[in-house]
Amino acid sequence: xxxxxxxxxxxxxxxxxxxxxxxxxxxxxxxxxxxxxxxxxxxxxxxxxxxxxxxxxxxxxxxxxxxxxxxxxxxxxxxxxxxxxxxxxxxxxxxxxxxxxxxxxxxxxxxxxxxxxxxxxxxxxxxxxxxxxxxxxxxxxxxxxxxxxxxxxxxxxxxxxxxxxxxxxxxxxxxxxxxxxxxxxxxxxxxxxxxxxxxxxxxxxxxxxxxxxxxxxxxxxxxxxxxxxxxxxxxxxxxxxxxxxxxxxxxxxxxxxxxxxxxxxxxxxxxxxxxxxxxxxxxxxxxxxxxxxxxxxxxxxxxxxxxxxxxxxxxxxxxxxxxxxxxxxxxxxxxxxxxxxxxxxxxxxxxxxxxxxxxxxxxxxxxxxxxxxxxxxxxxxxxxxxxxxxxxxxxxxxxxxxxxxxxxxxxxxxxxxxxxxxxxxxxxxxxxxxxxxxxxxxxxxxxxxxxxxxxxxxxxxxxxxxxxxxxxxxxxxxxxxxxxxxxxxxxxxxxxxxxxxxxxxxxxxxxxxxxxxxxxxxxxxxxxxxxxxxxxxxxxxxxxxxxxxxxxxxxxxxxxxxxxxxxxxxxxxxxxxxxxxxxxxxxxxxxxxxxxxxxxxxxxxxxxxxxxxxxxxxxxxxxxxxxxxxxxxxxxxxxxxxxxxxxxxxxxxxxxxxxxxxxxxxxxxxxxxxxxxxxxxxxxxxxxxxxxxxxxxxxxxxxxxxxxxxxxxxxxxxxxxxxxxxxxxxxxxxxxxxxxxxxxxxxxxxxxxxxxxxxxxxxxxxxxxxxxxxxxxxxxxxxxxxxxxxxxxxxxxxxxxxxxxxxxxxxxxxxxxxxxxxxxxxxxxxxxxxxxxxxxxxxxxxxxxxxxxxxxxxxxxxxxxxxxx
Length: 869
Ligand code: ADP
Ligand code: MG
Ligand code: MG
Hints:
This protein is α/β, with parallel strands linked by helices. The protein is about 45% helix and about 20% strand. One magnesium ion binds near residues 323 and 335.
C-alpha cells in the first residue's frame, strides 16, 4: 500500500488540500487541527475516486485501509461497529473540491441494524431516538444507494402521522417509529428483492461505492458542464462519527453564517431546530427558529458557537457558512465553507474585512465576482420574497421590472408617454421595435437567445430582459398572453426578473439599485490597481453622462447611424440617396450637417476632457430606404432594387461606402471638427477627438480615407488636434496590420464583426439556430459572441497588435465590441497590452473590476477564486 494511500484521519496532516480531500474533508481536517469540536472521522481521497473511475471498481487496498481507520475510530470512541449493545454509527458524505449540488446525498446513522437499534435504545435509554435514527438510515440508504423513490417512504411517514393525528415527525412516539421501521424495511425488500443489509461493513462499502458512482450521474455531469468544472476531479468521501441532534429538546441541529449573506452586515445569521437531525433544518419539515433562540435554551453551546464562528472567520479570512449539531447540550461543527453571498454582501464584507485588517485591498478587489456586479445596478426583486414563478426564460439582461403588458412597440411608446409602466412582450424584437424598447420598463420575448436582438439591445440600454421564455405564448389578434397556463390580457400587470429569467403574474415589490458606499470604495481600489482604461460605447449625451457616473474614461465607440434616423433626418437622408448625382447628394448632406454638428457638440460637452472615438457611417444605404412595397414612386422602387444586396453584411458598407460616396464621410468629418472647434471656443479646451473608419481591410482604403479626413479637417479647423484611425474587424486587417498601421493613429478591435468574419458566423443566423445546437451538443463550449474566441479571434488580435506596433510603437489600441464588458475577455485584453476596453455604460463598473483583477493576477498579488468548497 506504500505510496498509494487513500485514507486520512481528520487529525492527520496531509498536504493535498481541497484537491485531495474535497472541500468538506479539508474543512473537517482543518477544523479538527485547529481544536474546533468536530466528531472524529476520516476522508477517502479523490485519488481513490479517480482510481475507481479508471478501474470501474474499488481500488486494491482501499477496503483494508478503510477497515484500519474504522478500527481506529472504534478505539477512540470506545464503541464498536455493529455492536449489539452500544454501536458506533457514522455518516457517509460526499465532497468534491468545489461544492457541487447534484451529487450523492449524505447517509446518516450508518451502522444500525435490527439488533444494534435495540442496543442503541438500551444504551441511551431512549427508544424513540433509536428508532428515529434507524428509520432515517433505511430511507437514506434506500434512496441513495438503491435508488428507491423517496416518495414511497415519505408517503408512509405521512400516513403514520395522519393515523396518529399529529403534524410533526417530532410528535411521533417510539412505537410509531418502530412500526415505521418495519414498514420501511418492507419497502426496501419490495423494491430490491433483498433484505436491508445487516452487516455494517457491507453498508459502508456499498455507500462508498455509491458516492464514487454519483460523480458520473447525469445531474452531476450537467452541473459540471454548466460551471466549467473538469470531469476528472473526482469526489472524496467523508466518514464521520455520528453526533445526534435528535436526542430530545437539549439537542438539535442548525446552520449559521458569520455575516448576513444577503447584506454582508456583521452578526450571526442562522437557524436552529431542536430535536432534529441532518437536513431537517433546510428541508422545511418543521419551521426552524432563529439561532438566537439557542441563547436561552442552550446557553453554553450558543456561547461556544459564537466563539467558534469568530475563530473560523479569522482563520479562513472570509465569511463562513457552517453546519453544526448540539448533542445533549454539547456543540459539534460538521462543516464550514466560504459563504455564497449576494453582490451587495460581497462588497460590504470585503470592505469591512479590509477595515478589520483581515484582508488586504488587493484581496478585497480580487474576491468580488465581476459578473455579480450587474445585480447592483438595477432594481431587484426582494431576495427574501416567496414568489410563484409563472414562466421562465433566459436571464438576458439583469434587473427587475414591473409593468403592464403591451404587445407592440407603438402602444408601448404611447402608454409610456401617458405615464404608464409597460413591459414589451414580443415573439422576438427587431430594430423596428427600438422606440418601444426605449419606452418599456423591460422586455420579454418568447423566442431568441442570450444574444438575440432583444437581449443585446436591452443589455446595451441597461434594461431588464427575459428572452426565449418558451412557456409564454402570444395571441396578437386576441391581445392576450398565456403565461404558464394563465391567460392575461394586454394591460394586465406582470413582473420580470432579467437577472434570473423569472416571470411573475402581477406586481412584485422591487428594491432599488444599491450603488452604495461599499460599491464606490471597492471600485475606487480597483481603479488604483488596473492598467487598462475603461471607456463606454454610447451614442447620445444622456448616455455619455451616465457612463461618466459609472466611471467611464471616455467613449470608445460612438456610432453615428442614429444621426441619420429620426423624423427630421430620414427624409433628408432618403433625398440624398435618391439624388441623381453628386451635386444633389451634397445639397442634401449640407442640410444634415448642422444637425449632426449639434449632436457631436452635445457629446463632446458631456465628455469634456476625455477622448471620444466617433465611427463614421457603417451600414449599407438600403437600410435607410423603406421596404420596396412601401416605395413612394417608381424611382424609389428602382433605387431600392438597385441597392439590394444578397448579403448586406458583406456588401457595400463601412469604408467601402465612404470611398464610393466620399461626400458622406466628408460631411461627417466636417460636422465633427466644426463641433469640436465650437466646443473648444466655448470651453477653452479642445475635445479629444478620434475619427474612426469602419471595416478597413486594405491599406489603400485607409490611406485614401485618411487623406480625405486630413483635407477636410485642415480646411474646416486648421490646427485642431484629432486622431484618425480604424476599426479592426476583418481578418485581413489583422494580418496586414503593419501596412494599415502606417495610416492609423489607433486601432479599435470591433470584435462583434471580427468574430462574425473570422468564424464565418452571421450572428443573426447563428443564434437560435446552429449556434444553439453547437452549444447544446458541445461542439462549442461558449458563445463566441459573449466570450472572445481566444484561440481564433484572440490570436488574430494578437497578430494585429504585434504587427501594428512593429511599425508604430505608440499605436493606441482598444476594443469596442461587446466583449469589452465581459470579464474573461477583459483579462485577455489586459494580457494583450491594449490601452483600453470599451463597453456599454452599465458594464463599465464590471470592466473596471475585471481590469483590476487581471492586473492583480499578473503581478501575483491576488487571484480571483469563486466561492465554493
Ligand atoms: P451536504 O453536502 O448536502 O450539506 P452533508 O454531508 O453536509 O451534506 O450532510 C447532510 C446533513 O447531515 C447536514 O445537515 C450535516 O450537518 C448532517 N451530518 C452529516 N454528518 C453528520 C454526523 N456525523 N453527525 C450529525 N450530523 C451529520
Ligand atoms: Mg453540508
Ligand atoms: Mg462593425
